[in-house]
Amino acid sequence: MSALVALCLFTAFTLALGYANKARCTGPDFDEWGRSQPAYQERAYGDACYSDIQNLWIGRDIDRHVFPYVHGGIDQDGSLHGGVVEYPVLTGVLMWLGAAFAHTDAGFLAASALLMAPFGIAVAWWLGRLSGWRALLWAIGPPLVLYAFHNWDLPVVACATAAVFVVHRCTSMSLRRRATLAAVLLGLGVALKLYPGIFVPPLALYVLTGGSDGPPRRWDVRGALQVVGAALATVVVVNLPFAIAGFGGWLASFEFQSRRQVDISTNSVWYWGFRHWAGTDEFQSVVGVVSPLLVLLSFAVACWIGWRRFRRTGTYPWIQVCAAMLCGFLLLHKVHSPQYTLWLLPFFVLVSVRWGWIAAYLLADLAMGISIFGWLYLNMTGQPSGIHDGFTAQALMIGIWGRAALLVGLFPAFLAARSSVEDRPHRRA
């Protein structure tokens, strides 16, 4: 217990550093809209303290304390109005709560950090219970400093981690009940950010095959369907009130993402590998089809390799499959925002991949996470920003392509590794 408390204290300290890092961009003065002055945008890029939280204080009616989705919509040019934000509904509610008593972007950042910090500490607790000292990767990892308060991702990471915890530590319940509760948590994660939904099929396959008790006497088809049904029902129940209250505003958040173009804001290999063509409608149309197809293919391959491992070992490696699927998503999706590293970080704890993979990925991510803002600053101020013009662009390319190459390698590495989560005896049915 004392080790877990220490782990949580380490995490709290790292979160404080993360907040201090982003708070460098706030104040000291504010304009009539509560935007930090002077030279907010130049400081955000030049000092590498940019956060979506502070930036979105203006432009989504957050500063006007408008409850999200109900009265808004999307314009022909793709801009949102009336309180609509580009995230699923529970994240929209968190944003509204963070702004409830704020009058400046600094107050919004501080309140949002206070709202989300407990989720980051909870993740540390659950990872410590699941994998012991490996949870230090979360507690003191550089990504927590860089991205904890870059966007609203700590709550969704908490949902995904809690789902694993319930399956492998709440052993007083049957596997089917644990997995159903985990599916509800994953459904809540979908209502925060969509990515936990990809973990539902591996969880269903884990239940179908009897969990960690070896080959089943019979397939638990009912349990697998119950997992899928619980996740879907949770998503529907959470979204339905918003869809009823303001269907146009609710739908606008999804339409915004479907219209999103591959550009510098997406930060994906699709932009960096093909940016000379990114301005054409033909390229955008092709990527809009090819990217999701490749993502789905990577999911299918991960599940299939997991099934082959089940046939060999008697246990379906659902955590490893989830980790590999996330690698496929991060690599092939048209959007790869910097804070997505927080999604992957718990899997470095939960799956025993070699330390070289982890160190290399964290270094590549650190290079990307800092240099991207320096590169944007050079572009904003009209300074030379090419690969031959200085170390900023070189570090950015090392980060972007190093991270992409490592995701390719981590895909099979996760699937071949063992889980660091040791199962305890539990009820089978």
TrEMBL record:
Leader sequence residues: 1-18
Name of the molecule in the record: Glycosyltransferase family 87 protein
Naturally occurring in which organism (per UniProt): Saccharopolyspora rosea
Membrane-spanning residues: 84-101, 108-127, 147-167, 179-207, 227-251, 285-307, 313-332, 344-377, 397-417
Sorted UniProt keywords: Cell membrane, Membrane, Signal, Transferase, Transmembrane, Transmembrane helix
InterPro entries (alphabetical): GT87 (IPR018584), UCP010361 (IPR016570)
Coiled-coil segments on the chain, per record: none
Keyword Chaperone: no
Family that this chain belongs to: Belongs to the glycosyltransferase 87 family.
Top-rank lineage group of the source organism: Bacteria
Subcellular location, record wording: Cell membrane
Membrane topology field: Multi-pass membrane protein
Keyword Transferase: yes
